[in-house]
Amino acid sequence: MSLKLAEKEQVVTTLQTRLVGAQAAVVAEYRGLSVAQMTVLRAEARKQSVHVQVVKNSLLRRALTGTSFAVMDGLLKGPLMFAAAEDPVALAKIFTDYAKRFDKLVITGGALSGKQIDAAAIAQLSKMPSREELLAKLLGTMQAPISGFVRTLNEVPGRFVRTLAAVRDQRAA
């Protein structure tokens, strides 16, 4: 089915708006995946705020022009699925997990911070902790000295109360 010029322009502008806030992008070959498998992948990606789209390479090439993702131009060969996200780790985790589950999904490569990365780099990126995990660790690290200080301050009156209770028990006996 051929798209009209206006539809093609709309696809390009939609992709460009998706790329504005994106930190990373991935292209993968999806040949051989069933509709059900693609639906599962898209639903999981949507939960993680990852934009996944099957688009013609010529339209994707136009959308990538002038962005930091233009380095992916050499990867655009054959039928590809394009994905972009603000969180590069979430993007990498989704695609490596699904590439393991569905052997027909082959990660071709991607871009991160204006540099082209290959499938091995995407697999390594997927092993990193997610943004939420890193924020939780940071918060725990920041709270540790404060909670230790509060426990120390609470120990003085606690010790005083235990001493008074011991004196009371001693006098009662």
From TrEMBL:
It comes from Acidithiobacillus ferrianus. GO terms for molecular function: large ribosomal subunit rRNA binding; structural constituent of ribosome. Transmembrane segments: none annotated. Forms part of the ribosomal stalk, playing a central role in the interaction of the ribosome with GTP-bound translation factors. Keywords: Ribonucleoprotein, Ribosomal protein, RNA-binding, rRNA-binding. Part of the ribosomal stalk of the 50S ribosomal subunit. The N-terminus interacts with L11 and the large rRNA to form the base of the stalk. The C-terminus forms an elongated spine to which L12 dimers bind in a sequential fashion forming a multimeric L10(L12)X complex. GO terms for cellular component: large ribosomal subunit. CDD domains: Ribosomal_L10. The keyword Methyltransferase does not apply. NCBIfam families: PRK00099.1-1. It comes from the Bacteria. This is Large ribosomal subunit protein uL10. GO terms for biological process: translation. Belongs to the universal ribosomal protein uL10 family. It holds the Pfam family Ribosomal_L10.
